[in-house]
Amino acid sequence: MNIELLFTGGDCTPEIVRGKNAVVVDVLRATSVIATALENGASAVVPFGAIEEARAFAAGERERVVLGGERNALKIEGFDCGNSPFEYTRELVGGRQVALTTTNGTRAIENARGAKEVFILCMRNLGAVAEKILSGGRDIVVVCSGTDGKFSADDALCAGIFLDRLCAKSDARLDDAGRFARDFYSMGRERGVGLQDLLAESLHLNRLRARGFEADLDYCLTIDATGVVPVYRNGRIAL
Ligand code: MLT
Predict the structure, then answer these.
(1) pLDDT mean across residues, the chain
(2) Is 36 in the pocket of ligand 1 (CB under 6 A)?
(3) Percentage of the chain exceeding pLDDT 70
(4) Integer CA distances (angstroms), 23 to 2, 38, 87, 115, in order
(5) Which atom of ligand 1 is nearest to the CA of 26?
(6) What is each CA distance from 170 to 137, 138, 142, 160, 164, in whole angstroms?
(7) Which ligand 1 atom is nearest residue 33's CA?
(8) Which of 3, 76, 108, 202 shows the greatest Cβ crowding within 10 Å of its Cβ?
């Protein structure tokens, strides 16, 4: 199995993912929110790049659709939820669709839509997605969403752990970016450095910390907490 790693969602094109499976990651926090909403019984998460598209989807359907997302990490005016996974409770999202728009994550997911299958990865479902990929056997492209169009260490770290798992259980062949991400993780592990410490100076983590989202960081950086494997198909993400 050949594995390519892209460090930003903008690097993902239909040509790169054609004929392959894609795995999209936005640890802080879009893909963690998606996994949580589905785990808590949302019937689907529908990702949108633009705020107005999400609003239009939910218009007249507010009983059935939860409107969620962020800009600058904060809740959008008139929306039900921001981008904290703790807002997507079973009481709120159970049996309803979530229309979600975020700065980077939902755009990266849309960019991967030409792939055979598009899986949604975060730290919390890392092992479950790895098992799914291993059983598929197809070449894959891992798409880090990045932050504001640039490399983001939290996504690269999650990708590195994910690739480390795949390499341990298969003959996966990584590209330079993949080896770099895996080494970032494994060098930290060998030195006994925890995930939060590896990310201590990263831009997005510190932005969220400064805005009071410390609990989100603990939650989103917890590995293997759930078995859900969200799949993006025909414009919607579901289990
Ligand atoms: C994004 O999609 O850019 C992030 O999920 C932003 C955030 O953490 O709020």
Answers:
(1) 97
(2) no
(3) 100
(4) 13, 17, 24, 9
(5) 5
(6) 9, 12, 16, 15, 10
(7) 5
(8) 108
